[in-house]
Amino acid sequence: MSLLSIKNLHVEVEGKEILKGIDLEINAHEIHALLGPNGNGKSTLLSAIMGQPKYKISQGSITYKGKDVLKMSVDERAKAGLFLALQYPPEIPGVINSEFLKAAINTRLEKPVSLYRFIKELEDATKEVDLPLDIVHRSLNDGFSGGEKKRNEIIQMKLLKPELAMLDEIDSGLDVDALKAVVSSIQDVINRDGSALVVSHYARFYQLLEPSHVHIIIDGKIVMNGDASLIQRIDKEGFDWLKVENNIDIKKDNRPSSIGLCGIKEKVNEKR
Amino acid sequence: MKNAKITFLNNAVTLDSNKLFNKITNTIEIIDKQDLVINVLYDNCSFSNLSMVIKNSKVTLIEEYQGNIKPLNMEIEISNDSSLFRFGLYENLETELKLVRIIKNYGYYQNVLLDVSKNSVSHEEETSLLSPLSRCDIFSAIYANNKAVKDYKTKFSHQVVHTSSDCKIFGICNDFAKMTITTDAYIKKGASNTKATQEGRIINLVDTASGIIFPDLHIDENDVEAAHSCSVGSVNLDHLYYLQTRGFSYEQAKSLLIKSYFTPIYQYLNDKELIDKVTKAIEKRIG
Ligand SMILES: Nc1ncnc2c1ncn2[C@@H]1O[C@H](COP(=O)(O)OP(=O)(O)OP(=O)(O)O)[C@@H](O)[C@H]1O
Ligand SMILES: [Mg+2]
Predict the structure, then answer these.
(1) Residue A71, Cβ neighbours under 10 Å: how many?
(2) Mutation test of the interface with chain A: which of B235, B239, B244, B278, choosing the one with the most A Cβ atoms within 10 A?
(3) Count of beta carbons in the 10 Å neighbourhood of residue B198
């Protein structure tokens, strides 16, 4: 039985249909990569799976381990093992990072986590993503740099130990060492018989991650499925060949396509 | 630090550890005391008028209320280079409080208050800055839920040159509660080089809660620095969603956010005992 099964999913936001019939099956031990030009529905798909209330499901189904996800509240989905590292994690002043993390762990436990164990895991996680420990005493994401926010998402993933890790452009703004830490935390999920669904524009990240399945999403539909070789091609040629060879209409975004840039370059640009 | 305790029970003073209360004038008298901490407890208090005079002293005043409190006027005069840090903890208060503060001769008054009472409170504080270099800072954090009605009026009267006031009020309104926050700063003609700032923010957690703010500056003098800002908003849905994606139920996420709105109060507190008290009071009410 597949872990996550999506059938004919249609999603609307503010009355506009964004996803127009998505089918996707994810099994244990698989890493799925989702690629597509800007604004074509990648984040929408991940948010719809997690249950962001802004996105209305107008048709289709999502099941997770045989259970109807669409009937579950966001927190029920989280406690069932779904995790989404957001493309833009919000800043929440006044919610202290470490207290938030401890309470989040406890939402999954009958008996609260022991302080000793929590501190140990927290120390290990911050060390692995190379964040100074004092970041856990600050307000959640408040004033964090782009890269720090992304690393903090990984800390959360490490501590919450999901079964299905969904990561939305986790690599943007991260340096190579941090990317390696991300890959190893995804590997941890896989080793626990879980799976991952990852959105990124960067071939460099995918080289490290080695996804088992690749999907291209254009205008709210998955227009092609394949393996990691698809990424190499998109990295070299962009998405235009899909139109020439497969007659797939590509809606042009006015933003530049960012495929091919590596994470380090973006980080340098961010600092300017 | 020297500690003093005063308890007003019904219509009498039942505890006055440092003999500060003058029963004839109903006045707490503090003269030439440096670093004095006074804990005042109003227990089923039926006094209607009380006062305090502070001269040549540096005082921390912690006021707590329990039981049935009759409407109370409390007037404090701060003069001769004195400073007062007043902390008011309203855990179960249900009454009308009228606070009058008169600040003279380099006096400094700071009032930090936390109102987490589930009952209705009517609160009026009027501060008169009567001598040059008189200063006053106010920070209030107010929570109202159920059907509580909270009415907070804060007034500053700048009578002379070189006086300053700063007023920050944060309100959180839940359920069917009603909250009205009014701040008025009056700057008299001739009170030049005066500074008056006001900041007010209310968050209505649900549609049925109604909190409103009326900030006002009444300025009769040109050479002043005055500003006010206020906002009424609702809970940030992206924040709620983010917390829910980490496993918090809607109610848990909401109380985490409510507590987060209170955190600015901690920057005004440095006494460990007081910090614990505030944390406990917030935990007890919000969970
Ligand atoms: N809350 C919203 N209100 C209006 N439109 C929205 C909203 N959220 C998403 N959209 C629209 O839905 C479309 C898909 O957005 P989505 O964020 O899923 O794209 P994406 O593929 O993740 O793009 P990117 O690579 O830039 O992150 C876009 O046209 C976007 O403007
Ligand atoms: Mg996106």
Answers:
(1) 8
(2) B244
(3) 24
Q: Annotate A182-198 with b (16+ C-beta within 10 A) or e (fewer).
A: bbebbeebbeeebbbbb
Give CB contacts under 8 A, 24+ apart, made by A128-132.
Answer: A128/A158, A128/A181, A128/A184, A128/A185, A129/A154, A129/A155, A129/A158, A129/A178, A129/A181, A130/A177, A130/A178, A130/A181, A131/A155
A245 C-beta closer than 6 A to ligand 1:
no
pLDDT in tens, B20-43: 999 999 999 999 999 999 999 999
- CATH domain A4-88+163-271 topology: Rossmann fold (3.40.50)
Q: Does A112 touch chain B (CB under 8 A)?
A: no
Query: Do B247 and A104 count as a contact with CB atoms less than 8 A apart?
Result: yes
Question: What are the φ/ψ torsions at residue B235 (nearest 5 degrees)?
Answer: -65, 140
E-state strands within B104-148: 108-115, 121-129, 135-144
> Chain A neighbours among B 252-271 (CB < 8 Å)?
252-253, 256-257, 259-264
Residue A66 Cα, ligand 2 centroid: separation in angstroms? 27
Q: How do residues B218-261 score in pLDDT, each as one tens digit? A: 999 999 999 999 999 999 999 999 999 999 999 999 999 999 99
Ligand 1 atom with minimal separation from the A258 CA: 25
pTM listed for this prediction: 0.86
| Within-domain flag for B85 | yes
In angstroms, the CA B146 to CA B128 distance is 35
The total number of structural domains that make up chain B = 1
What is the domain range of residue B280?
Answer: 72-286
- Measured in Å, residue A40 CA sits from the centre of ligand 1 at 7
Distance A43 CA to ligand 2 centre (A): 4
B68 touches chain A (CB under 8 A): no
All residues of chain A having their beta carbon less than 8 Å from the beta carbon of residue B247 are: 75, 78-79, 104, 107-108, 160
Q: Chain-wide mean pLDDT for chain A?
A: 90
Give the ipTM of the model, two decimals please.
Answer: 0.91
pLDDT digits (tens, 9 = 90+) for B172-223: 999 999 999 999 999 999 999 999 999 999 999 999 999 999 999 999 999 9
A107 touches chain B (CB under 8 A): yes
